[in-house]
Design brief:
The protein has eleven helices and twelve strands. It is α+β, with helices and mostly antiparallel strands and 282 residues long. The chain is globular.
Length: 282
């Protein structure tokens, strides 16, 4: 798959967005099936002229003769998502940092993305949305598209007042270099573990421990690039023992760590990790 990666230009957007990637396919026979894996980022996809079928942990996208624009957003999922892409496609995916999308929506995150994958309509009635889509898909220049997208995002930016305690908790749980359990973090913030759990469920759509395991999982992918043993990878990613390391991987990745690392492919400057099942005309 020819995936092109771009990083936010505007300093405000860099606070909330990790990166964008484009997938533009002009081959009607294109057909690829793959698994994508849980991440601490929130992917939001904007597609041109597609039909889609969404099932639990399985989403298919196919070229459509209907002239439309479809947006999909993925919640903070705990299991791999099976994806199938067919035909000519033209999409951008925005990877929002934790709490990032919250700054650009009109409802709580838990209301916007309660499922692993769903249609996203929150922007459809925003002032300038139709003009944005027309301009965005009116050019094939990806650099220009990034500029058009960022102008739209800045126009709908509504900074959400989030309790600083939640932000501190998110940062603490994502920091694998300073291992702390949920109870320690809640105690340091002066709140109960129940309050901490409510924060995460409302604003991130996942429990605190679920988020922490995903952060450990994503860190282990980075450590694996350094050619270390499975024992070292588990230890450096703060999995308390090998049995727990394996159990979390079987849930999040659907395989043991050793089998998983042998099966994955990386795209978008190693930002994306997929397990390709049917490469078709990739």
């Amino acid at each position: 798959m020819d995936i092109r990666t771009y990083f936010p230009r505007h300093p405000l957007l860099r606070q909330y967005i990790s990166y964008y990637y484009f997938l533009v396919v002009d081959d009607p026979d294109f057909n690829v099936t793959y698994y994508s894996f849980p991440n601490t980022t929130t992917p939001l996809n904007i597609h041109k002229n597609i039909e889609t079928k969404i099932e639990p942990y399985a989403t298919s996208i196919a070229e459509s003769k209907e002239q439309n624009n479809v947006m999909l957003v993925q919640g903070m999922r705990k299991q791999p998502l099976l994806a199938n892409l067919k035909g000519r496609l033209d999409k951008i995916t925005i990877h929002f940092k934790p709490l990032g999308l919250n700054q650009f929506i009109s409802k709580p995150f838990a209301d916007i993305a309660p499922l692993d994958s769903q249609l996203f309509t929150d922007w459809c009635h925003a002032p300038g949305y139709n003009h944005f889509i027309a301009d965005f898909y009116g050019t094939c220049d990806l650099e220009r598209r990034v500029g058009i997208l960022e102008a739209f995002l800045l126009s709908i930016y509504k900074p959400m007042i989030i309790d600083p305690l939640l932000i501190n908790a998110v940062n603490a749980l994502a920091d694998t270099s300073n291992e702390q359990n949920i109870q320690q973090i809640a105690q340091e913030l002066g709140i109960s573990t129940k309050t901490l759990s409510r924060f995460f469920t409302k604003h991130l759509g996942i429990t605190a421990i679920g988020f922490k395991n995903i952060a450990r999982f994503r860190h282990s992918l980075q450590v694996n690039q350094q050619g270390k043993t499975l024992t070292d990878i588990g230890y450096e990613s703060n999995f308390c023992d090998q049995a727990y390391f394996i159990n979390v991987y079987k849930q999040i990745a659907g395989a043991s760590p050793g089998a998983f690392f042998k099966s994955i492919s990386k795209f978008a400057d190693d930002q994306l990790v997929f397990k390709l099942l049917d490469q078709g005309t990739v």
